[in-house]
Structures are given as structure tokens and as C-alpha cells.
Amino acid sequence: MSRNPIPWTERLSPWRAPIDVALGRYPFFAFGGPLNPKILPVFHFHEVSPEYLEPHLLYLKDNGYRCAGAEEFLGIVERGEPIMPRTVFLTFDDAWASLWTVAAPLLRKHGMRAVTFAIPGRVSPSEGVRKTIEEDSEMLEFGDRGEEPFCRWEELKRLDKEGVVEVESHTYAHEQIPVAGPSLGMWAETQCSEMPILSRPLVRKGEESFRPFDEREIGVPLLPTRSRMSDALRANECGEVTETDQEQREAIRGDLILCRETLEKRLERPIRILCFPWAVAGGVAREEAKVLGYRAAFSDSFPGKRFVHSKADPFQLMRLKHNWIYYLPGKGRKNIVGTRIH
Length: 342
Known about the structure:
By secondary structure, this protein is an alpha/beta fold. 27% of the residues lie in helices and 13% in strands. It has helices spanning 16-22, 50-62, 70-79, 97-109, 153-162, 189-194, 245-267, 283-291, and strands at 42-45, 66-67, 87-94, 114-118, 165-169, 176-178, 202-204, 210-212, 225-227, 273-275, 296-298, 320-321. Strand 7 (202-204) and strand 8 form a beta hairpin.
């Protein structure tokens, strides 16, 4: 009954990128060619520092690029509307604290805009807003590694209302679930210190409340995990599947509904776009996203093109990592020779 063998699109395979290149899945500009006026390059960031992010924005600004907003993006995807020259779409996953402290001030400074895919179950409950690099240019800590690694609700509301960073959906919990397979040992102190917080299994306290594994789980069996949005079924500590197909569908549907309802209540507007965590979306998750009224979603696919165009499947859109910004045509463009494709 287990459907847990990892599908091609979820594997860290050294063959994936070369195959994508051979099949023409990367945009031509990535290899020194021009920017096709019929495609929209989409780039994604996560945590950022001023020293890291600003050169990317300066490259775009100095070479005459502009950033599409969410509705413009949807017009291209849903209605095939023409793409304005030198247009890109910038996204920031997870709504880390540096989205507020670093990214928004720099986007504002350089006349850019972006979309963040926020995780309501991870948003900081603290009131008010934090200082940014606009108020303190000497800031050395940007919040991503502190006790509040993610944005607060007031910060997200202000950014969304201003329009500098529009807020969309990244599921409610960004959850990894244990799946059938041999044990990987026991949860230990090394996992507590080394495993990224968004990759840790969750301890559930109810539909809306949870916490990531921490020191309290030391000694608990560590099973293989997969995204809750994959087609995998949840397993218990013994590696035995414990949910039915219907229970899996209800869990996925419940997460997507709760995410959308929470964001819409907080932001007081419709949520339109979904980005699946780790770009993983099984057939059930894509079906539920469509039924629930999401208008577009980012997820991995094979074969699939790593850019947005009017004939793309709106629920299997793909992006490029932010380092590909430097391969866009312009002064200071990087040379693809000797560069590793990933």
C-alpha cells in the first residue's frame, strides 16, 4: 500500500540538471543567448543579507529590468497577456525575518517589488514591527537565526498593503512527514543543531498548533521524511503506514484551506498563488489546490520548463535560483563556461 519510493522529481540526482539542459528546459539566456520576449523568468530567494541581495537588485536595475506584480504574473499565466520588455518575477520563500529587515528596504530603495510565500503556522506571533536596515544601517543581525526567525503578522500586513512585497501561500505548516522505510537512527543533538528548522519533523498539538522536533525528541526513532504535499502516506515510529488515501487527501486539503483562510483573514484580500514547499506536489495536492480556488502554483515537474510562459500548466510552474539573475542579458553578465548547472 505504500507509495513511498521517491519519484524522480523529488530526488537529489546528479543527472537531473544535465537532462533538463539537454531537453531545453532552461531558458536560452542562461547560455549566453537573448531573453525570449515570450517568457517570464522567475527567481527565488530565501534568507538574505544586504551584502548578498543588493548586488542582484543592482544588476537588474542597472540593466533596465522591471519586476512584475502578482496580478501581472497571473495575467500572463491565465490569459496569455503580453510580457513587458525586460520583466522578471522575484519571489522570497518562507517569509524569513530578513524579508522585513533587509529585502523590503532594498526593494524599496531600488524601485523593485516581489512576492513572498509565507507559512502562516510559522509566522511570529509577536506584536509590532522590528527595526530594519533603513533605520539602522549598521545592523549585523537580521533575525533569521534568532528566536523569531520569521516575519511578524504586522510586518507582512504592512509590506502587502504597500505592495513592495505581496504575500501569497506556502502551505500552513511547511511540513515533512515520516514515511515508510528503514530507520535512519535516533534523533540526536546533532540533528537539533544542524538540521534546518523547516526540514525537521513536527510534533502536532492540534490542527493549527505544532512545533518542530527539538531536544525533547532526542532518542526518538528518525524515519525517512517526505513533504506533506507529496503523494506519500504518513508512517508511525515503526515505519508502518498509518493513514488511508482519504486521510491523506483530507490532511492536504485541511492544510491548504487553513493556510488560505488564515492569510485572507490577516491580509483582508484573496490569496491567489501557492508555492509548494521544496517544489514538491503530488497529484492529490495539485488537484486540491485547483479545487480550493488557487489560481496558480509553483511545483517541480519532469519534464518541465524552468520559466513561465503562457502555455504552461498553471499548477506546475517552475523557477530558477536567484544566482541565475546574473545570466540575464546586460552589462556585467556572467559567462556560462565553467559554471555548474543546478
